[in-house]
């Protein structure tokens, strides 16, 4: 790339070093390279992927870390940031029904994208619950949808260069809207009277290690994304995505892997 080289052969681009070639490091390296950085990504293990790796024994393959995808758009964005398409590398399959919850009284609830089936199941547990859930969970103006998008746009996708940028009046308003001081279980108890439904639509907080009794109501974004964006498998395991991202990174951008560093 001629324009990147100064007289004397030095690379004119600013240099960025990314420590760790997990999903996070590789996605950051891809984005930095596309922003014009000369990126060096260092990884202490012999293969990229971080916690997303696999063990193969006697022809059987086991995921060591992640096995399902929530918010697939995040993976597509990582590939798109280097001008590629995740679909060129792997096949994603929606898991539907996502799971079946079996309750203490013998009843069960299948989480599925089939709205009619959801209506039948919810209404059999609590009259009027489907409409309230639909209003809360599925509609564009729903709380879970808003929580996800407000959090991504205003917090996750933003840089905060000082404490004042974070503790700003705008963020104070946002935290109020996201109901960060309200407990998730209290919030969901307003939507459902039936304790089975209250559990079914708040236990997902435990995916990230938080009890719904302690988690902020903001976490309703998890139930929203699980239902509306779906839960996905990658044929051959998520490690296939790590491998593809590493390959694309090495072939499309200036990125030096220094594997086996400690
Ligand atoms: C058992 C398990 C199941 C999971 N299931 C799911 C799931 O189903 N779905 C899902 O979305 N998420 C799941 N997760 C979470 C997901 O695996 C992680 O959120 C994700 O892999 C984190 O990526 P990362 O790049 O931030 O960190 P990591 O994957 O931890 O990558 C960090 C990398 O940095 C390297 N490193 C660290 N220090 C140095 C250093 N000093 N020098 C050089 N290299 C360094 C490490 O070797 C590693 O490769 C699961 C996690 C576990 C453990």
Looking at the structure, what is the overall shape? globular
- Biggest sheet, in brief? 3 strands, parallel
First-last Cα distance: 31 Å
Mean pLDDT: 87
Strand content: 5-15%
- Structural class call reads alpha/beta
Contiguous low-pLDDT stretches (5 residues minimum) are none
Report strand order across the widest sheet: 1-2-10
Helix amount: 40-55%
Helix segment tally: 11
Q: Compute the number of structural domains.
A: 2
Number of E-state strands: 10
Q: How would you explain this protein's 3D organization?
A:
Helices cover 40% and strands 15% of the residues. By secondary structure, the chain is α/β, with parallel strands linked by helices. It folds into 2 domains: 2-68 and 237-258, FAD/NAD(P)-binding domain, CATH 3.50.50; 96-229, no CATH class. The longest helix is centred in the middle third of the chain and has 14 residues, at 143-156. The two termini are 31 Å apart. The structure holds flavin-adenine dinucleotide (FAD). Flavin-adenine dinucleotide binds at residues 19-25, 42-45, 50-52, 65-68, 70, 261. It comes from Guillardia theta (strain CCMP2712) (Cryptophyte). Pfam families: NAD_binding_8. This is Amine oxidase domain-containing protein.
């Amino acid at each position: 790339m001629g324009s990147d080289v100064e007289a004397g052969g030095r690379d004119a681009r600013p240099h960025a070093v990314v420590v760790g070639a997990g999903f996070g490091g590789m996605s950051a390296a891809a984005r930095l390279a596309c922003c014009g950085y000369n990126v060096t990504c260092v990884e202490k293990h012999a293969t990229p992927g971080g916690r997303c790796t696999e063990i193969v024994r006697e022809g059987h393959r086991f995921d060591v870390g992640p096995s399902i995808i929530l918010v697939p758009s995040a993976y597509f964005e990582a590939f798109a940031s280097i001008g590629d398409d995740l679909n060129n590398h792997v096949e994603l399959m929606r898991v539907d029904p996502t799971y079946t919850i079996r309750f203490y009284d013998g009843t069960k609830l299948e989480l599925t994208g089939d709205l009619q089936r959801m209506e039948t199941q919810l209404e059999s547990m609590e009259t009027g619950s489907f409409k309230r859930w639909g209003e809360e969970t599925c509609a564009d103006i729903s709380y879970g949808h808003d929580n996800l998008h407000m959090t991504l746009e205003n917090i996750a996708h933003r840089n905060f260069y000082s404490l004042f940028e974070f503790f700003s009046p705008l963020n104070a308003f946002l935290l109020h809207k996201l109901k960060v001081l309200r407990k998730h279980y209290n919030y969901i108890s307003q939507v459902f009277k039936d304790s089975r439904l209250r559990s079914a639509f708040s236990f997902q907080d435990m995916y990230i290690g938080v009890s719904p009794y302690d988690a902020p109501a903001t976490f309703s974004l998890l139930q929203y994304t699980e239902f509306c964006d779906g839960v996905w498998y990658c044929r051959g395991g998520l490690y296939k995505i790590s491998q593809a991202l590493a390959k694309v990174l090495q072939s499309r951008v200036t990125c030096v892997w220094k594997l086996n560093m400690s």
